[in-house]
């Protein structure tokens, strides 16, 4: 059995271990909130309003386990996620219709919003990706969809498919009052109790939240109208994202890992041990392993705006 769900040689590792994923994860939540029905599911059946940071950390844990967790660990997490989702339903106040949290079209939307956000943010942050790697990443992520109850054929398998899907769903997306409130939560989230020691550093979060908002598609920012639009904002957002990524890359791993849940750090430690036993050389964390032995920056320029909704 392979030591991790995704191989260290995969594009999934190249993107998911990049520290721009903090912005990517928040962007994904902001984009997901534009689906009115999906937003109602979050609003009514999660603790998002009281603990938006907790939801982000749970998403980070899911990404971590389905990237470098063991296949058994990922299967167990997937089963827990599916079991919880099966038990939850909610009512759309606009129609009075009852929906399941694990409704097929909602799961597809959440998956695509996440994958396109991770890809778009990493690209703009400076992660070098060839067109072939972009397609490969989307295809690799179709396996992740199976953990929430979808099949690989239910979701896009390449960039062209992803663009078609995003174009098809866009007419149904809009910024509801709940979605705008969710964005405000994400721009200035509540610090969870187990990270209370970070409360004095809370102002440092705002650049992450603001960049997540600024990297949304222009139509999404217009729909939200939560932060002002400024001339040259797109270029400024990309430049700022690259600066933030550079700054995050300077944080030593032992300090960087303090913001993650204990289970996420434990999963990483166990993955490190499995990789050592499988013959990988690891120094200074997974990113060093990846950069030194597996991923060399390609000489071709990355594609333009790979998965813009």
From TrEMBL:
Residues 13-244 form the ER-bound oxygenase mpaB/mpaB'/Rubber oxygenase catalytic domain. GO terms for molecular function: oxidoreductase activity. It comes from the Bacteria. This is ER-bound oxygenase mpaB/mpaB'/Rubber oxygenase catalytic domain-containing protein. Coiled coil: none annotated.
């Amino acid at each position: 059995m392979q030591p991790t769900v995704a191989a260290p040689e995969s594009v999934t590792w190249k993107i998911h271990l990049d520290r721009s994923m903090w912005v990517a994860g928040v962007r994904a939540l902001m984009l997901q909130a534009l689906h009115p029905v999906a937003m109602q599911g979050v609003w009514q059946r999660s603790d998002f309003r009281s603990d938006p940071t907790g939801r982000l950390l749970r998403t980070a844990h899911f990404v971590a386990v389905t990237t470098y967790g063991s296949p058994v660990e990922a299967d167990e997490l997937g089963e827990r996620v599916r079991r919880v989702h099966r038990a939850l339903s909610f009512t759309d106040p606009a129609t009075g219709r009852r929906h399941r949290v694990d409704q097929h079209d909602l799961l597809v939307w959440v998956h695509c919003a996440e994958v396109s956000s991770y890809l778009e943010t990493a690209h703009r942050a400076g992660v070098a990706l060839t067109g072939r790697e972009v397609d490969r990443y989307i295809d690799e992520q179709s396996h992740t969809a199976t953990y929430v109850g979808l099949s690989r054929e239910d979701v896009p398998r390449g960039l062209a498919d992803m663009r078609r899907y995003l174009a098809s769903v866009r007419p149904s997306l809009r910024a509801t009052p709940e979605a705008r409130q969710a964005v405000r939560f994400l721009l200035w989230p509540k610090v969870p109790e187990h990270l209370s020691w970070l409360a004095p550093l809370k102002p440092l979060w705002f650049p992450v939240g603001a960049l997540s908002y600024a990297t949304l598609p222009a139509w999404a920012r217009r729909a939200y109208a939560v932060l002002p639009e400024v001339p040259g904002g797109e270029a400024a957002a990309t430049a700022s994202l690259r600066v933030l990524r550079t700054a995050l890359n300077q944080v030593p791993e032992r300090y960087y890992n303090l913001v993650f849940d204990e289970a996420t750090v434990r999963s990483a430690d166990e993955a490190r041990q499995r990789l050592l036993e499988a013959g990988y050389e690891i120094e200074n964390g997974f990113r060093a392993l990846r950069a030194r032995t597996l991923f060399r920056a390609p000489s071709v320029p990355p594609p333009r705006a790979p998965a813009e909704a």
